[in-house]
Amino acid sequence: MINMYEVSETNKMIEQENLDVRTITLGISLLDCIDSDLEELNRKIYEKITRLAKNLVSTGNDIEREFGIPIVNKRISITPIALVGGAACKSPEDFVTIAQTLDRAAKEVGVNFIGGYSALVSKGMTKSDEYLIRSIPQALAVTERICSSVNVGSTKTGINMDAVRLCGQIVKDTAEATKDNDSLGCAKLVIFCNAPDDNPFMAGAFLGVTEADAVINVGVSGPGVVKKALEKVRGKGFKELCETIKKTAFKVTRVGQLVAGEASKRLGVPFGIVDLSLAPTPSVGDSVAEILEEIGLERVGAPGTTAALAMLNDQVKKGGVMASSYVGGLSGAFIPVSEDQGMIDAVNAGSLTLEKLEAMTCVCSVGLDMIAIPGKTTAATISGIIADEMAIGMVNQKTTAVRLIPVIGKDVGDTAEFGGLLGYAPIMPVNEFSCDEFIRREGRIPAPIHSFKN
């Protein structure tokens, strides 16, 4: 049982150290909306979302006001739409009508994002999957609040290289379709390996088919809190360092558990999980990069960065897992470039490169996240970067993801502006040697031998 003493203990963290609940995400299953008639399918989807989520935002606001805990976002995740639309959608344009329906529903209930315009194709693609994937550029261009994801690999099935090749082109097409806003559509598109069913964070959230009809998942975040705590153990050994991170992660996660329990009770929806990820924002003092620098790096990207991140990620999980009945989602430390001022500064200083970021993804929670690259980057090169990141996830039995933004009309030395929590990003250089022949090969990369654990 969480008591009010624990809440009051967090007041300083909230007021001075940027502690917040990043999102309350209501997962809604749309499997019972499936219909062969497209118009009827859209009607059912709109009706179910607006009915179940009508009190989500007001409930979040009430909890925020009563407990004094900032709740930054209220969001919705849904069943992957490729599964829901298969019977009715005979073209990519049919799927776009569903995207527009989802956007209208999101606006009606007041959430800032709705995730699940997604396809799960780690082994193969149905026609429905392919239509949805091909619809993504248009869907993200004509909507405001839709987030999309494609799972192209897993430890059990390997990597679907046909889907990787297609997704490289889709990222490029999405960039073109939204080029008037610095290719912003790509900031709402994630390519996954081992995507979790219960992730509350955008842009990769969707509600897996193993989940209940509706569920509350909460994502907490407190990079600033961890950094402040580590300032008190400067010069101490790794034992003190690890203990401090664990104890801080415990306190942060307890706040998430409280909010999740309250939201579940008030909405009459089961509690799913708390995702205890350290998710940065562009705000000063809310940076994962600054934590790593507090640990002892001159700049993120310096030798030792991957080791420091591995330790941070592990201690966050160890501390947080004791603070909640159910921990899930991604849980650990995020390293998005545009959303973390310390990461932006490291790129500008020349200490952080795309290759170093890739190495860091071997030990952190997500992958190559919110990275702006030159608009001239080819679709094949984007596919190659995706394939590399999927391989890291597949071999290491972890979730990895790619959210690359080829900013049309911009090159290294320029800056892309995304606004709000998405921040801004310097355009990072990309290795320009060709991988075209590799990407043109058809089929899939087999699962690694350690995937056979049945």
UniProtKB/TrEMBL annotation:
This is UPF0210 protein HGO97_007200. It comes from the Bacteria. It comes from Faecalicatena faecalis. Homodimer. NCBIfam families: PRK05313.1 (NF003700). Pfam families: DUF711. Belongs to the UPF0210 family.
